[in-house]
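Recall the central idea of this unit: under ordinary conditions, the amino acid sequence of a chain determines the structure it adopts. In this exercise we apply that idea directly, starting from the sequence alone.
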Amino acid sequence: MGQVCLKRKELNQTMQQQDIAAFIGLDWADKTHSIHLQAGHGKREHSTLEQKPEVLHEWVAQLRQRFQGRKVAIAIEQRKGAVVHALMMYDFIVLYPINPKALARFREAFRTSGAKDDPNDSELLLDLVLNHHERLRAWIPDSTEARKLQLLCEQRRKMVNHRVALTNRITSLLKQYFPQALDWVGDVACIQACDFLSNWSTLTAVQRARQDTLREFYRAHNCRKASVIEERIGQIKAAVPLTSDPAIVEPLSLCVQTYAGQLRLLIRAIQDFDDRIATTFALHPDRDVFDSFPGAGPVGAPRLAAAFGTDRSRWQSAVEIQSHSGIAPVTKRSGQSVSIQHRLACPKFIKQTFHEFSDQSIRFCAWARAYYDQMRDRGKDHHAALRALAYKWIRILFRCWKDRKPYDDAKYLHALRQHGSELVKDFC
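Accordingly, the structure predicted from this sequence is:
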C-alpha cells in the first residue's frame, strides 16, 4: 500500500511539473476509436468514439472543459493520418506518436500469444505514455508551410512511383505485340509517348497514317531534327508486325491506350506538384541552405528541407537524424558476438530522400565521388556505398541547418586538407 501511495505521489509530482492533467491512450480504427484515460491518481476510464469529425472534436472540447485547458498527453500509434491531423490543431494536446513496432513488442511482453485487441492496445498505449513519457518524444507540429512542403514532396514521390509502374507496364505490353513503338515514341514517360500510343496503339494503325500527319505529330512534340523524323517514318513504313493474331493485338492495344491516358494525367499532375513545391519552397526560411548542396536541385532541395523541418529543437545531434532516417546501421551485441545490420525500421520517404540525394551528389561533388569510389573499392555494393556517403552528408547537412549557413564546398575541402583526409588526395 505504501509503494502504491509513493508511486501515485511521484506521478502527481511529474504531472504537476509538466502541467499534464491527464494521460490518454488512443487506439484508432476505421470505424471506432478505443480510448483509455487516467487523470492523476483516479481510476482508469475506458470509452469509444465513432470515426466522425464532429464526434472527435466534441470529445476534445469536453477534455478542454474538464481539465480547464491544462495539457493532456495522448499516445497514438501513428504520426500522420486523419486523427493526428484533427488533434494537432489543439494547443493543449501533447501528442506522443508510438512506433507500431514498439507497441507490438510491448504487447508481446504481456501477451506472448500475440493476440491483438483494440481496447487492450489503447490501455497499453496509456501505460507507455503514463510510465515512460520522459523517454518518449512529444510530437511538436512544424509550421504550416513546412508541413505543406513535406506532404507535397511525399505525395509527389508517390506519383513518380505510379508513373514508373505505368511506364513499366506499357513497355512490357508493347514488347509482346508492338516492340517497334519503343523506338518511335521517344521516352515512354513523356507526353509524346502518351499521344503516340493513344493515336496509334498498333503497327497497323500507325502504318495507315499519312507521312505528313506523322511529320506534324513529331514537330508538334518538339522533335525538330528532320533526319530523325524521316528515319522514323522510314522504319514505320518498312516494319513487319511481331504478331497479327487479333486475340493478342486487340486486348493488349486496348490496355496500352488505357494506360497511356492514365500516364498523361499522371505526368501533368507531377508537373502541377513541381510548380506547387517550387512556390512553397521559395518562401521556406531555409531555402538558401538546402539549395546550396551539390546535386540537390529543384527536387532534392525541398525534400531535404522537408526531412529536417524548421524546428531546430527537434534534432539535437546529427546522430539522431542518422538513426531516425535509417541511414545509420544497427549494432547488435550479445556476449562476444557483434553484428552490424542495415536499419529497416525507419521512415521510408526520409531514408529515400538522403539516399537519392547522395546518388545525385556524386555527379556534382568531387569529394563525394571520391568517397563513393572508396566504398566501392572496399567491396560495398552501390546502395551500401550511397548509405555510407549519406551518413557523411547528414552530418554536414545538420551543421549547415543548425547554423542556418549555406554549404561551402571550398570550406569543406579546406577542412579535409587540414585533417589530412585521403579524400583530398584522390582528386587534388
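The chain has 20 helices and seven strands.
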